[in-house]
Amino acid sequence: MVILSGVICCLCWGAPAWPTDGVASRDWVVDALQWRFHRGLDDCDEIVPALDAMTLEWISESTELTLEIQQSEWPFLEKAPELLPVLIQAKAMGTMLEIKGDEKAQRNVVRNVRRVVRKTAGLPVRALRSDFRSLLRSAEYKRGHRSNK
User: What is the DSSP string of 21-52?
Assistant: First the structure.
């Protein structure tokens, strides 16, 4: 039992401290999302769902963020709709960090979502891989660069 507790503690290590007043701030959301993108959907079952709820609530109520998501532009959502909250968080993170340029912003969003997918058991990783590659390639072609893959 002690070993299991130690493993769980280590897997969830570095989680941001909960806001003392229970109300998220912009800085807390940025810190929380930076930590969150290194965890799967099913990791840290006592922390991730609460952190997701609080960050998504802050994003939805924020006056500084306006996010528009066309599901048809994100083909992985058809295969794994449970990734929509992560996509929202990733797009919000790019906006908060003021990542400029459509291509760079898209690459960062795709990389953050892809990292969460890799850390999540039970998702169709192989099926999603082609969607992520396609999205990353489209950003490369827009910039005039292309990979040999």
Answer: TS---HHHHHHHHHHHTTS-TTSSTTTHHHHH
- Residue 37 phi, psi (nearest 5): -70, -5
| Long-range CB contacts (within 8 A, 24+) of 21-29 | 24/54, 24/55, 24/57, 24/58, 25/58, 26/58, 26/62, 26/64, 26/96, 29/54, 29/55, 29/58, 29/59, 29/92, 29/96
Angle, alpha carbons 33-35-40 (nearest 5°): 95
pLDDT of residue 13: 83
The full set of domain ranges for the chain reads: 15-143
What is the value of pTM for the model shown? 0.84
Q: Which two structure tokens, joined as six digits, stand for 107?
A: 């690459």
Q: How far apart are the first and last CA of the chain?
A: 46
Please report the pLDDT score of residue 104 as a whole number.
84
